[in-house]
Amino acid sequence: MATTTMKKVGKAVLGLAILIGFVGKFAPHLFMTLPFPLSIILWASTGNEMPPYFMTDAWKEDEIDTWMRDGDLVVAAGAKSGTTFMLYCAHQIRTKGTDENDDLFPDVSIATPWMDFRQSRGGSWAEQKERYNTTIVDGRPMKEYWDNPAYPFRVFKSHYTPPTLPVRKEGGKKIKYLAMVRNGIDVAASMTPFYTSHSEKFRSLWGGFPPAIAEDSYSSDTPPAAVKDILPGGPLESIYFGYVNSWWPYRSDPNVLLFHYSNVRKDLKGHVSKLAKFLGVKLNGGELKKVTQRCSLEHMKSVDLFRYKMPLSRDKGLWDAEKNHVMASGSMTNSGRVGGTGAALFSDKVVAQWKKAEEDMLGHDPVMLKWAREGGDFPAV
């Protein structure tokens, strides 16, 4: 009797495993209807990319030339390392900070699209690609915002790194890449409230991810969920450690501009000038002053243009493409902390754990480790 029961249980478990594997391969979006964390456990354990709304298809070597143009810029700053900051700054450079072009930036995700971003549960690059050209936003083709003929170049967002981004691809379109690294503990400190700042609408769309984090857990001796996720062994380990290791060897490539967040904050004008030169845009004294002012944290806080809409979403009943936002108002323009000051958010034990992780993951190159922590100049390759 016991043997028969065990065989039945074994067959049931095997059948369930096969079913989960099948769903994970052919319809993983169905996992997003389940409660957190089961939704994410099943999504990730069946080989799907994390976070669940990331996808790499747009950057494949045989695909990228079908939609990119010579001179286009990919802002591929690290997560919580100034991506939105640099997207807006690149836009200001291409318009030279002119007031009459303000209407071309209704939202960061519309004027500087995030091509890695899956905007529907079952969405794919193939079905989103065409809708970038056909979707109407506020009575106007979305294409007019991100692909306006007045722009000398287009700007796109990514959080990927080489080799997913084909930086050294031979032949094809001549694409430029802006990467940016930030002090790791400052990234962790920014990532923690960032999890909570996602709207409930967005969170429910993606199986409860990212989870809200209680503020009273920040100072615990156990890393908050966001920090645990990006520490070595976590599902998002590549977001910081993988990012630094991947971009460092490309720092001297002619089509790559690698910034450090603290350097930019300390000398915004100088870095606006460097970025403009990299992009082939000549700014006179007045234009440089105007663009620098518009790129400042103070100006960005004064406008509400960084909540990330999803105009391509097809999840009717779950997401209103006109009204809903991914992020809470003001959450993408917070303190801009630099120099490791984010350590004050965490317990000494968590800070020590982070420092050890940095040494383990980046310490094989002491120069890289020091630069990732402190910024400053770096040696050429």
Produce the secondary structure layout.
Elements: H1 2-26, H2 38-45, H3 61-64, E1 73-75, H4 83-95, H5 108-111, H6 125-134, E2 136-137, E3 140-141, H7 143-146, E4 155-157, E5 176-181, H8 184-196, H9 200-205, H10 225-230, H11 241-247, E6 256-260, H12 261-266, H13 268-279, H14 285-295, H15 297-302, H16 348-362, H17 366-374
Tell me what the structure shows.
The chain is globular. It is mostly helical. Helix 13 packs across helix 14. The termini are far apart. Strand 2 (136-137) and strand 3 (140-141) form a beta hairpin. It has helices at residues 2-26, 38-45, 61-64, 83-95, 108-111, 125-134, 143-146, 184-196, 200-205, 225-230, 241-247, 261-266, 268-279, 285-295, 297-302, 348-362, 366-374, and strands at 73-75, 136-137, 140-141, 155-157, 176-181, 256-260. Helix content is 42%, strand content 6%.
Return the average pLDDT rounded to an integer.
94
The residue fraction in helices comes out at: 40-55%
Shape: globular
- The residue ranges in which pLDDT falls below 50 over 5 or more consecutive positions are none
Structural class: mainly alpha
Q: Rg from C-alpha positions?
A: 22 Å
What labels describe this entry?
mainly alpha; 17 helices; globular
In short:
With 381 residues, the chain is mainly alpha-helical.
